Amino acid sequence: MRRGHSYESLSYGCIETPPKSDIAKRLNTIYQSIEEKIHQWKPDFMSIEQLFFGRNTTTAGCVWQARGTILLLASQNNLPYYEPKPNQIKMAVCGSGSADKTQIQKMVKRLLNLREIPRPDDAADALAIAVTGLALDSFSRKTGYKNND
User: Fold this and answer.
1) Is 47 helix (H, G, I), strand (E, B) or coil?
2) Which end of the chain is more exposed for a tag (fewer CB within 10 A), N or C?
3) 10 Å Cβ neighbour count for 85?
4) What is the mean pLDDT of residues 29-49?
5) What's the CA gap between 105 and 95, in Å, rounded?
6) Cα–Cα distance measured from residue 97 to residue 87, given in angstroms and rounded to the nearest whole number
7) Does residue 43 have a cis bond before it (omega within 30 degrees)?
8) Which of 92-101, 122-131, 137-146 has the weakest average pLDDT?
C-alpha cells in the first residue's frame, strides 16, 4: 500500500503447494489463496511479473499455468494488472536494471520499513513486483497510459 511517498506492506508470504501433487490441485490451491486475499484486501490492481525462461520447459510450463490462474482472477475481479519485466523491477526497486537478488531484498526491506528481509526469497521477489506495480500505477494515473484493458 502507498501512503504518500512511502510504502507499507499489509501482508506477505508464499503459497506453498506439494511439488509432487496433481497440477490441477496445485492451481486450485493458488486460485483459492489469491481469491481470498483479493476479497480480504480489495486491491486496486495486481502486479504480475513477466517471465522469461531459457531451458527448463517443465518448470516454465507450471509457472505459466500458475500465472494464467492469477490473470484469470484479475479478470474475474475486474482488476487492472501490470506486467513488469525483471529489469523494470530491478530499476524500480534499486534504480539499476542490473541489480542482484541481494540488493533487491535489501531495498525491499528498506522501502517497506521491514525489520528483516522477507523470507523465503519468493516473498521478497513478490514484494518487489508489488512495489513496481505501485510505480507503474502511479505513472498510469498521471499520464493516462493503460497497461492493459
Assistant:
1) strand
2) C
3) 14
4) 96
5) 13
6) 5
7) no
8) 137-146
- Is pTM, for the whole model, over 0.85? yes
How many structural domains comprise the chain? 2
**24-34 confidence digits (pLDDT tens):** 999 999 999 99
Helix, strand or coil for residue 22? coil
pLDDT for residue 147:
65
Angstrom distance (rounded) from CA 38 to CA 80: 13
H-type alpha helices, 2-145? 23-41, 57-76, 86-94, 101-111, 121-143
Q: What is the CATH number of the domain that holds 37?
A: 3.30.420.10
Here the cell at position 145 is 497510459
Range of the domain at 70: 19-83
Question: Residue with C-alpha cell 505513472?
Answer: 139
**3-class SS of residue 12:** coil
51 and 94 co-located in one domain: no
Rounded to whole angstroms, the Cα distance separating 111 from 105 reads 10
Give the separation between CA 112 and CA 148, rounded to whole angstroms: 27
